[in-house]
Amino acid sequence: MTSTDDLTSSSFEEKPFIYPTLDCLLYDVREILGESEKEKKARRRKFWEKVYQEIEDKQLDTLQQHERDDGANNLLLDKSEKLFGSNSEHDEKLDGFIWPVNLEDIYGLYLGTSGRYLNAASNPPQKNDEPRPLAAINDLKQQILGQLDPKAISLDKRRRERHGSLGETWLIWAKQTDGRLPQDLAQDIYARLLGSVPKDIHHHLTLTGHVKHGDLNARFFEFEATPTFWNVEWHKFLDFYPHVCVLLFPESENLDDIRTWMGKEGCLNFLRWFGFRNKVRWAKWNSRQLKAELKGNYATVKRRYQQVRDRLKSKTVNLAELQKDLSECLSDRAEYAEKLVLLDAQQHAIAINARNYEQRQRRLGLELQRTEHCNWNPDRDIEQIQFDRDNLETGLTLLDHLIRNIEGVIQIEQTRGDRALNQTVGMAGVGLATGAIAVAVATTHPQQPPKPRDIVTAPAFWWSVLVGIGFSVLVAILQAIARRGRG
Q1: What sign results for the dihedral spanned by CA atoms 320, 325, 330, 331?
Q2: Which of 29, 34, 147, 395 is the most exposed, fewest CB within 10 Å of its CB?
């Protein structure tokens, strides 16, 4: 990977575009089914801290009133209320804006900057329509960073909470002034945003085409490196594999018309369109995390299955240990089943949002073609998740089989213990009953009431004891013979 500082000096002197604008589109989860009000408030706070850095509870409650639950997409602040520059060190007024938007079940945050005004003192401030060098991208990055996370020294050094919890997209648009191929300029812009030139940069181009709106016509380029590993935290994944799009308008287009469209209708259309794409990407990442966790759980299940099977093969069975195994297996099953349900949810999320993404693309009139390096394939992702789920579901079957076996052994052991107790009680009962009969016979028609000492020393008492013991032994022998006969 080559640093952008290693580019030829001519690259710095060239002024290939007019009014370059860097837009950062961040997406956050707005609500999750079943979460508490406390969790919703914490999620809301994290979103608004991207706008205000710090926010008090009273202000947070006021902002909540702007949210709508009727499925409508609406701006959560007036466009003029939050302009770029209010959080910068010198409170510099920049040609930019911050738009927090309610997108049904998610938050969208649109940060855009075109740099410094040519004359900020004029009314209205005079925009900079002079041709500008590629180095302008570096300035725009720092302005976005100054708003999003002033303490970070680069985009990939942002704090975890300053990333989009659902995803993010970087959109650069400008009016081209030189005669080079738009794709070559788009590639240079992409490298500038990254801060380096990847060796396989040609493989990062995934989508090309045209964007048409009325008389406006622009070239569109999408860049995204194909992920080679997924087992990283989400914010790191976004830094490793940023989603970047470049929109280049030809020199013949009117700049005011471009600004009017992108400043009103265009930017919000792109915000919604990329929102569906980021939902698909997030669900795919989640499915990979769940798959890795389930594979770990499956290995644990196999080990437990072997341990319990070996224990059951032993001659002695510890009922307390079996009950502990059963409790752990039931807990494992609940966790395993929950993750399988979540894996199903990612599959549905990809299907729904991929369909919405394609519909929104057609509505925008985008004519796009995917390159051979494009990793966007929702149908393949859905098939892969289904394949993984079918394989991993065997772990649930294994747990169910193990639970049934443990329950069966416990029931047998408990039944065996109950039968032994009943037999002991039965033998004692027979002995006691026989002894009582002997006593009753021996003491029939007494001449006078016996004294306690006379009862103990009386031959009848000892005959009753001996008869009771004898009958108890006889019953035990008969039961043993009966069990041997059944065996």
Answers
A1: positive
A2: 34
**Which residues of the chain carry a pLDDT beneath 50?**
7-12, 86-90, 421-446
Q: What is the pTM of this model?
A: 0.82
Interval 185-195: pLDDT, tens: 999 999 999 99
The predicted pLDDT at position 206 comes to 97
What number of other Cβ atoms are within 10 A of residue 459's Cβ? 8
> Alpha-carbon distance 23 to 173, whole Å?
8
Torsion angle (degrees, nearest 10) of CA 339, 345, 351, 356: -140
Predicted pLDDT at 79: 57
**How big is the chain, counted in residues?**
487
Name the residue ranges covered by the structural domains of the chain. Answer: 2-253, 287-415, 417-486
